[in-house]
Amino acid sequence: TVSVKQLVNNALQEIETISPAQAAERLDDDNTVFVDIRDIRELYRGGKIPGALHAPRGMLEFWVDPESEYHRDIFSSGKSFVLYCAKSHRSALATLALQNMGLNPVCHIDGGFEAWSQANFASETVTSK
């Protein structure tokens, strides 16, 4: 068997990881899409990076695959994607999955939204509809 820790460590060997500061430098880049893969309840509790697209982890691969009935056009836009979750474990696994699907360029934020918030970078409130 393989533990989650091993899966994450293996993913980190294959993907690009950027710091919260490096991510913040990309925030105003129109060719970069921030993708929050956390559960919607996490967004309600703590907010999200301004302008980030919410793509729940459970649907991510379906939204990326152009042959899926759930495909979202943004993932075929040719833009760069910066994924994040709460602490960067889920986003490491998701980044590897999307990279393996051929989505490029794609990376994730080291430490996730927790590290982003601790660095005092901007966030926006998310409310239910």
Task: Give a verbal description of the structure.
The chain has 129 residues and is of the alpha/beta class. Helices cover 36% and strands 15% of the residues. It has 6 helices and 5 strands; from the N terminus they run αβαβαβαβαβα. It has helices at 4-12, 20-25, 40-46, 60-64, 89-100, 112-118; strands spanning 16-18, 32-36, 53-54, 80-84, 106-109. It has a 5-stranded parallel beta sheet. α3 links the parallel β2 (32-36) and β3. α1 (4-12) packs across α5 (89-100). The radius of gyration is 14 Å and the shape is globular. The model has no long low-confidence stretch (mean pLDDT 97).
Helix and strand run: HEHEHEHEHEH
3D shape? globular
Low-confidence stretches: none
What structural class results from the helix and strand content? alpha/beta
Average pLDDT, rounded to a whole number, is 97
Assess the beta-strand content as a share of residues. 5-15%
Spatial arrangement of strands, main beta sheet: 1-5-4-2-3
Biggest sheet character: 5 strands, parallel
End-to-end C-alpha gap: 42 Å
Number of helices: 6
Q: Portion of residues in helices?
A: 25-40%
Number of separate strands: 5
Radius of gyration: 14 Å
